[in-house]
Every structure is written in structure tokens, then in C-alpha cells.
Amino acid sequence: MSSHIRATATKQRKTDYxxxxxxxxxxxxxxxxxxxxxxxxxxxxxxxxxxxxxxxxRRLDVGAPAEGLYRFADWLPVQRRLAGSSxxxxxxxxxxxxxxDMNELYITFSGYWPERxxxxxxxxxxxxxxxxxxxxxxxxxxxxxVVASAGNTARAFMRVCSENRIPLVIAIPExxxxxxxxxxxxxxxxKVLAAGGNADYSDAIRLAGLVAGMEGFVAEGGAKxxxxxxxxxxxxxxxxTEIGRVPDAYFQAVGSGTGAIAAWEANLRFIxxxxxxxxxxxxxxxxxxxxxxxxxxxxxxxxxxxxxxESVAKQQIHDIRAKVLSNRTPPYSVHGGLFDALSDSDGxxxxxxxxxxxxxxxxFRRTEGIDVAPAASVAVASLIDARRRGEVGRDDVxxxxxxxxxxxxxxxxxxxxxxxxxxxxxxxxxxxxKIRRVLDxxxxx
Length: 445
Description:
Elements (H helix, E strand, L loop, with lengths): L16 E5 L5 E2 L22 E5 L33 E4 L2 H6 L4 E5 L2 E2 L4 E2 L6 H11 L7 E5 L3 H13 L3 E6 L7 E2 L7 E7 L4 H12 L4 E3 L6 H7 L1 H10 L5 E5 L4 H16 L8 E7 L4 H8 L9 H10 L18 H8 L2 E5 L1 H15 L5 H15 L9 E5 L4 H7 L3 E2 L4 E4 L5 H13 L1
Parallel strand pairs: 5-16, 8-9, 8-12, 9-11, 11-18, 13-14, 13-16, 14-15
Antiparallel strand pairs: 1-2, 1-3, 4-5, 6-7, 10-17
């Protein structure tokens, strides 16, 4: 096994951009440009609405692979470049394509696969978010970033902030703490708060919100943060620039759907770029049955999410293989959110059960030679199903977004460090006074 070597800093470069409110059409100044945090919403919006980044460079120039994620800096809202990033890698499939009788299947892989120069040491495309979000704020910004996660996002932000010594508070369900492993030591600037009492991701979001509302802390913002969405969009930037055109279809498993929104937004930017086609790729998304909140909402044809009893949702989340696909408060209805992305792309959401996901996982490993994360296996299973039913043609240009993989390689190549919670707070006892006392203790010790 190898020990982790701390990455070295890269050169600094700001990206020229502005924000636009999708509800009002107004240009909104990003406070991050003035070193004052991150603008997440438009105060003039009459209903919940996303902001969207508009870049000064309408044509994307891709940098060298050595620049990591920042090879796509033209379309990332960053004030600086952080150490240690890796970009998604896209390649034309041979093994899986043969198994599915497809001629134009392209796999975009985010994870650890050194033979393909994929070096996301957390094994997940959430690193794309973390390296973008953390680089959106200046090095001199005094407040501590707060992130809620079911596991993968926490692990990615833990790595990025630890290696670059950026103060961070992670809120995560206690039962998901086993997802917090690292290939190197975790810097003391990272603090972990676990939501206890049979808490799930929604409870972690609530805990994070309480922390972020206190002086000295700032919410990362989730899907509202343009840096998170544009960081995730680098999967599509990788695919389109490798293929030479926008794909016909895009496959990804979703929990919140933020990655799919990001893919749609990237598609719109490429249309404006003008060199990669003028069409919109169809978003073919998937969820792990029986937790099908987004699937069921979309099938109903309504902008509003279906109602789901909390106890039923928790049991469904317990039963699914891909735990990270379990967001109970996804950005579905918001202006510019998942409903709009699916509607504009003629998209759909498929249901995949555990058995189908397990089969897909083994097929991918056998045909492509690397393991994939449970969520990615759900996406593979949805492609298998769509191909079997004839919804994807033999010559369709398809992007399969493998959002995590190479865990077995990471575990074999590195001596892992498992992070522990600095404090566990029962979800039944969330209060500002209790959380304030915990934070005072953590940041004074």
C-alpha cells in the first residue's frame, strides 16, 4: 500500500463571469467577486429560482490535463485554483458497448482509475463540486464553510478542504459516518457533526442549516450554488470535447438531480458555443427502487413533488442499495430545477431495483475492468434496460456518466484514514443553543 502525498498548489486564475436570475432575467452581482461569500439567490425573484452563471468566454478553451478540474476554468466560477484536483475522463467504450451492441457509447468516469489518469482519490464526482465551490471564495474569506451530505459530498469536501486548509463543518447522518474515509490525514480545520437518532440526509441538511445561520459560518448552498452545478457540469464538458459533439442521450442516476440540471445547463452553453451541435441531449435519469421520489413525481407530470410519509421514506431509503440516491428535498420544483431540465430535454426517469443494479455492477466490472459505485451501477442498469427496450439505438451517441468508481483500487493502493465525528447531536434535540455550545467547544479547543 502507498501513503498519500499532499498535492502542491497550482497557479491562481480568476474566471470572468456574471450571475443571472432565471425568474427575473436580472443580472446579479456575485458577492464572491468582492470577497464577501457567495450569492445563492436573487432577492427580487418572485418565486424560488436558480441563478445561472454567464461566462465572458462563450467558447470553451480546454486546458492541459495537468490542470486537473481547472482545465475547464473558462466555465467555472472560480477565484483561485486549489491543489490536488482531477478532471472527469471520457473514453469510447469497447467492452460494455459490445455487450450492449452499441457503436457510439462513451463513458465519462469520475473516480480512481490511474490507468486512465482518473485520480479522484475519494472515488466520486463530488470532487468536481468541492474543487469548484471551495475555489469560488477567496483565500481571505473569514467564515467557515458548512456542507450537508449523505456521504460522498462530505468525503469530497473533507479531502479538498483538508489538503488546502480551508475551514469546514460537515453535517452528516451518524449512520453514514463509515463513508468518511481519506487517503491522507484529515486536517484539524475540518470538523464533523453527526446527526444522530436514526437521522437521514434531510436531518443532516437541517443541522447544517442551523450551523450556517450562526455568525462566522456560511452555507455551501447545495444546488443553489452555481459553483456546485458548474463543477458537476465538467462531466459533460469532458464528454462533449472528447466526442466532438453533444451526445444524443445522457444517462445518470440521481438523488437530488443537481448533476442532471448541471448537464442540461452545460448543454445550453455548448449550443451557444456553436461548435458542438445545436441539439439538446435527452436526459435519461434513474433512481434506485423502492425510493422513487423523483421518478414518481415526474411520472405524475406535475412540477410539485409527490407527498411521501417520513416513516415510509426512511424504510425505502433503508432498502435501497445506493444510499446516496436518497434526497427527500431535491431541487425539483424550483425555477431552473430538475422539472424544467427534464421538460426542456424531453427527458425521463427510470426505476432500477437492487437486483438490476447488482447485475449492472458486475457487468461493468467484467467488460470495462473497474468497479463502480452503487449509484453508478444504477445508471448502468438503466442503460441496459433502455437498450433492451429499444429506446436507445445501436448508433445513438450516448454519454454514460459514471459518477463514482475505483473504490477497490483506492482501498488496495492506500492506507485509509477513517474520520470520526467531533460531536453527535440527536435530531430530536437540534437547537441553536445546543449547537452553538458544541461549535464554541470545537473551535476553541
